[in-house]
């Protein structure tokens, strides 16, 4: 396996018989995806990562799915990258014809590919943090649209301690939420943030009792499902793009999007209902 090219390595992983990612459909409009390798602390092994990317792509490609929840089997969300994978693939890259290019392909198409699915899909992706999260799994959480954290959750920012830099969009997400100085402070400290501290910094949206975690996440899925489909699928990319736009570009994008929403049945019916309610109030 150590001598395989990136493409050969992925094909080998796709033949893995163990199921390391579990998919559930608790609502007609919501899919829940579990990292399900608790004996390995849900580390991002090759097979788990490949299975997760496929499961996420399938869920996001299903038109009836209005939101996706990414969570894990207790007690960890994920300790991040699998150390055996690092040793066997990254540390031996120089001995393969493709050199470090194969590692780049893995990071870009697998780790980064999952982050892009989360961020670039029009379907909201929620993360339900059931425990400690580190490394690439932390990057995925920061890429999501909402993070609901268990009271047991911790954000582990220990890249530097193992000789790594922030990865898979983490530096972008942290500096935009916290600014350079606070983000740099967290990196240098390299410790853990309890869920309550992460909430105070705005890195998670809500902290809930551990046994209520999935119910609360599905409650957000229900809120999303009650909105007209086009509202959510148009608003997510608008808001995502606005983070990198000037005010002039953001308002321009909204000006082009809004006329389309006026022509939808959902908007017409809502306006008719509001007008009828107003007319009844006036008659009284």
Q: Could you explain how this protein is built, in words?
A:
There is one protein chain. The chain has 284 residues and is of the alpha/beta class. The protein folds into two domains: 6-226, Alpha-Beta Complex (2-enoyl-CoA Hydratase, Chain A, domain 1); 229-283. The protein contains eleven helices and nine strands. The chain has helices spanning 6-14, 46-60, 83-90, 101-120, 135-143, 170-189, 195-201, 213-226, 229-242, 247-262, 265-283, and strands at residues 21-27, 30-35, 67-72, 125-129, 132-134, 146-150, 154-156, 192-194, 206-208. The strands form two sheets. Strands 1-2-3-4-6-9 form a six-stranded mixed sheet, sandwiched between helices. Strand 1 and strand 2 (30-35) form a beta hairpin. Helix 2 packs parallel to helix 4 and helix 9 runs antiparallel to helix 10. It is globular, with a radius of gyration of 21 Å. The model has no long low-confidence stretch (mean pLDDT 87).
List the quaternary state of the chains.
single chain
**Largest sheet features:** 6 strands, mixed
Head-to-tail CA distance between termini: 78 Å
- Strand order across the largest sheet: 1-2-3-4-6-9
């Amino acid at each position: 396996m150590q001598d395989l090219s990136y493409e050969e390595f992925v094909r080998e992983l796709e033949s893995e018989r163990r199921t390391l990612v579990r998919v559930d459909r608790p609502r007609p409009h919501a899919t829940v995806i579990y990292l399900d390798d608790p004996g390995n602390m849900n580390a991002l092994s090759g097979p788990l990562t490949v299975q997760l990317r496929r499961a996420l792509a399938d869920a996001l490609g299903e038109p009836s799915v209005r939101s996706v929840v990414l969570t894990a089997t207790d007690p960890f969300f994920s300790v991040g990258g699998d150390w055996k994978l690092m040793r066997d693939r990254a540390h031996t890259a120089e001995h393969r014809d493709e050199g470090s290019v194969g590692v780049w392909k893995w990071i870009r198409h697998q780790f980064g590919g999952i982050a892009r699915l989360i961020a670039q899909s029009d379907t909201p992706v929620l993360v339900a943090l059931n425990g400690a999260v580190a490394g690439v799994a932390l990057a995925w959480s920061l890429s999501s649209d909402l993070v609901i954290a268990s009271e047991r959750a911790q954000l582990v920012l220990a890249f530097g301690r193992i000789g790594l830099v922030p990865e898979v969009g983490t530096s972008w997400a942290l500096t935009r939420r916290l600014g350079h100085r606070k983000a740099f402070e967290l990196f240098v400290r390299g410790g853990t943030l309890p869920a309550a501290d992460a909430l105070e910094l705005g890195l998670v949206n809500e902290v809930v009792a551990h046994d209520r975690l999935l119910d609360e996440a599905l409650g957000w899925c229900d809120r999303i499902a009650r909105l007209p489909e086009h509202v959510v699928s148009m608003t997510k990319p608008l808001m995502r793009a606005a983070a990198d736009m000037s005010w002039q570009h953001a308002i321009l994008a909204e000006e082009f999007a809004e006329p389309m929403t006026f022509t939808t049945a959902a908007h017409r019916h809502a306006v008719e209902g509001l007008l009828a309610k107003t007319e009844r109030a006036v008659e009284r």
